[in-house]
Write a structure and sequence with these properties.
Blueprint lengths: L30 H7 L7 H7 L2 H7 L10 H25 L2 H4 L4 H10 L9 H4 L7 H7 L2 H9 L6 H8 L21 H15 L11 H13 L5 H20 L1
Helix pairs in contact: 4-6, 4-11, 4-13, 6-10, 6-11, 9-10, 11-12, 12-13
Length: 253
Amino acid sequence: MGLEINKPLGVGGITPNISSARYSSFGGISSDTFEITSDKRYTTEPAIRKMIDGRVKNIVKGFNPQLTLNMKELETLLENHCTETKNIADGIIENLPFSLQAKVDKKAVEDASYLHDLGKVLIPVNILNKPDKLNEAETKIMHTHSELSYELLKNTDLDKKTLQLIRNHHQNAKKTGYPWVGKDFNADLNLQILSVADKFSALTEKRAYKNEMTPKQALTVIYQDVKEGKLHPFIFKALADYAVSVKENINAA
């Protein structure tokens, strides 16, 4: 994976009920200026309508030919899961060794963290919020969301690195994720940070089809990716350290 370590690192003494909420202030920047320059400018209904092109229409023609946009679902997703994914990614970066922190494109990871699930605005609500396990056809539809996110955003001013992170956030170093990638694909440091932040957030939140896991349970699941060579141990260690630091901050408050 381009990074080497002699032996894997264990989960450690992670305890349950960790919350990773963070708060940011924008100093003297006005709300209007912030809206224009932040990633939120890509997530309004008019902006999304302008992004829809022939490729997007082709992807969704079998399950959303009317191009219905689930704006309420998207708003909830952005306020919760996507923001949390961004917070977790920042926490991972902060807990990496300094030599690796210098190799991270933090802006690309943060932008991709917030926008990675934009394509779900075109996934039918009955699939997004199905209380049971998705069948094969529904799973195939759900798996289009990462490519849809990429296709919607590809003609914006986002840089190529950010766009590729968005497209491939469900891929891994073993290339067993989705969508398809070629032989030259590399699950680099940035992508692994985004991918594991997304996974940790998803595992620890309640969804229509599942209850939330404790952070310890989620880390145990994710550690399997380390053992299978899908995730580098240094990134896992940074995630575990971040989870511990958040719990300590909460206990100290």
